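The freezer alarm interrupted the setup, so I double-checked each line after restarting. Inputs confirmed:
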Amino acid sequence: MIRVQNVTKTFGDFAALHGIDLEIKPGEFVALLGPSGSGKTTLLRIIAGLEFQDGGEVLFDGEDVSSRSVGERQVGFVFQQYALFKHMTVAENVAFGLSVRRKGRPAKADIRARAEELLRLVQLEGLGKRYPGQLSGGQRQRVALARALAIEPRLLLLDEPFGALDAKVRKDLRRWLRDLHESMGLTSIFVTHDQEEALELADRVVVMDHGRIEQVGTPEQVYMEPASPFVSNFVGETNQLPGGVHARPHDIELVGEGGTPVLVDNVFRRGGSWRVEGRIEGHDKVVEFDVDASQPAPKLGETVQIRPRRVREFSS
Amino acid sequence: MTASSAARVPRAPRRRWRQPSVLPGFGLTFGLSLGWLTLIVLIPLATIFLKSAGMGWDQFVAVGLSDRAMAAYRLSFGTAAAAGLVNAVFGLLVAWVLVRYTFPGQRLIGAVVDLPFALPTAVAGIALTTLYSPSGWVGQFLDPLGIKVAFTPIGITVALVFIGLPFVVRSVEPVLADLGRDVEEAAATLGASRFQTFRRVIFPAIFPALLTGFALAFARGVGEYGSVIFISGNMPGRTEIAPLLIVTQLEQYAYDGATAIATIMMLVSFAILLALNVVQAAGRRRYGV
Amino acid sequence: MRRSTTESRALQVMLIGIALVFLAFFLLLPLIAVFGEALKAGIGPFLDAVSAPDALSAIKLTLLIAAISVPLNLVFGVVASWAITKFQFPGKSILISLIDLPFSVSPVVSGLMFVLLFGANGWFGPWLAEHDLKIIFAVPGIVLATVFITFPFVARELIPLMMEQGKDEEEAAISLGASGWQTFRHVTLPNIRWGLLYGVLLCNARAMGEFGAVSVVSGHIRGETNTMPLHVEILYNEYDFVGAFAVASLLAGLALVTLVAKTVLEWRFNLHGSASH
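Predicted 3D structure, all chains:
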C-alpha cells in the first residue's frame, strides 16, 4: 500500500504540487493523467525518491520513506526516453540492478540467468548481446522495463511509457504491459497526458491539473461523471452548451423539433458517423455532435434541432 | 508511349561527384580551399617526407635512431604521456566541477581554463621556470624536500600539463553537460551508489571524449617547444626534448638530421592519433550510435 | 536543492577545492608570476624595458605578422567552411582532417619545412638567391610559418557552427532571387559573425604568440626579425629578467584581453567553447 499525504513541492516560485493526497492499493494499475505542467511527473518522481517533497509524507506499507534514498526504496522506474546505458549490452543493462547490489549480490551465473529470464519475459530472447543503439524504439522500451523489473520492485513507476513510440507500436505495447502487470501481480503507476491511454490501461485514473488532483476514479467514473469542468474537457470531448451544461458529442442527438437550433458550419465523416460542427445563436462556443452515418448528412448552412441525451452541470 | 511524352521523361541523372545544390560558389570556394591548403600545408609537409626519402636508409637511421635521438623521443613521448594522464585526471575533475556544481567565481574559473590557449608558450615557459626553479616561488618549498622540478623531466611534465589542460577540459565538458540526468537517475533507482554510477555509467559514457582530450593534449605535448625549453635545462640525453634536438641540428646546418628526427616524430604522432581514432570509431560502431 | 543524483555537499566542496588548488597552481600562479616579475623593480624599469628600441621593433614586427596572417586565414576559413558545410561531396571528412593537420605538427617541424623549401640549401634556395629574394631569416618566412601554425583556427570554429545552422536560410535567399554574394553577405555572414570573431581572436592570439616555428625561420636578427616572443627569449637568456617579463607581460595582457573577449562572446551569444584550440 502506497500513501501520499499532503505532499507539496515548489520549484523556485512555481508551485508544482499543492497538498496531494493519494492511496494506491497493492496490485492496482493507476494512471496519473494531466496536461504538461499539471505536476503528474513531479508526483511520480517524488514517490520514486528522485525528487524530494517540501512538505507531507510518502508512506510505503505504513513506513515513511521520505528520508529514504531512491536506491533504498526498491522502486522500478521506466524513463520516458528509456535512459538505457548505451555502452552496455542489453543483458548488461538488465543485470545492472543486481550487479550493483552491495548486500546479498547474487552470483554472476545467477545474475546472468535472471537477465535471460527477464529478456524472455519481455520477448527479447536472444538479443542480450546487442547494444541499445541497435534496437527499435519498442524493443528499447521493453529492455527498460526488464531492467526495472530485475530488482523485483515493490512498485513499478512509468513516466510517459509510450510517449516516444509511434502509434502502432504504442497500441501493441499497451496491451502487453497490461497483461504483464496482471500476470506478475505488480503495483504500477504511470504518467500520461493521453486520456485514451489512461482510460484503456488503468484500474484507476488520477486526473491532475495545476498541481492539484481534480478527480480520482475508475475510467468509467472519470469519463461518465467528471467531477469538474476541467475533467470533463480533458477526458474525452465535451461541448459547453448555454447555461453551464456539458455534453459529450455522442450524447447529443438530432430531433425533429423542440430542440436547440444549431446552424451547421461543417460536416465530415468520422468512422461510422458524421461529425457536425455548428453554432447556437447567442452562444460563442462551437458545438460538435455525431450523427449516425446511416442517416443523411446535415447540409451546410442548414439549421437543425439538437437535444443532449446526457449532460453534466457544473456550478461555476 | 508517344514521342512527345518521351521527351519529357527526365534523363537518368548523371552520376556526380558532388550532390547538386542550388547554392552557388562550390567550384570557387572548394578550389580556393584546396589550393591554399596544398600550398601552405600539404607541399611543405610533403617536403619533410621527400627529403627523408631522399637521404637513404642508413643515414636516416644513423641520425634518426641515434642514442641521443632515442633519448629525446623517450623523453618527449614519455613526458607528454605523463602530462596527458595528469590532465586526464585533473581535467576531468575540473570539467566535472564546472558542469555539475555551482560555486562563487565559477564563470571566472571557466574562462581561466582557456588561458593556455591564449598565453604565448614562451611566456608560460619563463613563468613556470621562475616559479619552479630552486629559488622560485614554488621551488623554494620543494627544494628542501629534495624535489627538483625545474631542469628535470618533472619540469617538462609541469609545462606540458599547463599546455594540455584545456584540451581535456574542453573535450569532456560538452559531453558531460549533454549526458542525460535520466541515465544517472536510472542507475540510482536500480540501487547503484554514486560511486558505482560514476564508475559504471558516467565514466564509460565520457571515456571517448576523455580519450580525445588526452590524444589532443598528448599530440600537442610531443611537439611542444616554447614552454618547455626554458624549464627543461636542455641537457643532451637527459632533458633534451625531440623538438629541441631538431633545432640543435638546424643550428649546425644538419638538415638531414633535423628532417630524420622530424619524420620519426611525425610518424609516431600520426600513428598514435590514427590508432586512437580507429578505437573511437570502432566504439561508435559497436554501440550502434 | 536536494537531488537524488548528486554528491553530498561535503564531497562537492572537497572536489571543488582540489580543482581550484590545481588551477591556481598550474594556471593562475604562472600568470601572476609574469606580472609580478615584470614589476618587481618598479614601474620605471618596466617602462624602460618595453620602450627600448629592440622591444619596440619586436612589437611592430609582431603586429605586422598578425596583420598579414590573420586576414589570410580569415578568408581561407570562411571560404573552406562554405565549401564544406553547404555542399555534399565525398572526401569531405578527409578535407576536414587535412585542415586540422597543423594542430598535430610540432611548431619546430613547421618551421623546418619552410627552411627545407626556402632556406639557403633548400629546394628553392638557389633560385631565390639568384633573384635576390629572402624568405628564411626574413619577414616572409615568419609570415609563412605563422600562417601554417594558425591555419585551422578560423575554419575550426566556423565548420561546426555552419553545419549546425544548415543551409535552409541560404536556399531560401537564393529562391527569392538573391545572388550568391548577396546571400553570403546578408544571410550567412550575420549568422556566423560572432563565431567568426571568436575564431579570429584565437587565431590572432596564436599568431602573435607563436614561438617555436617562428624561432626556426627568423634567424633572431635583433631589430629586424625578432618578434615579441623571440625577444622575450633573448632577454631571458641574457639574464635581463625584468626586461623579459616586461615584454612577456604585454603578451600576457594580450592573452587576458583575448580571454575576456572570448568569455563575453560566449555569454552574450551563447557560443559553445567546443574543442577550440
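Quick read of the result. The CA atoms of residues 77 and 154 of chain C lie 5 Å apart.
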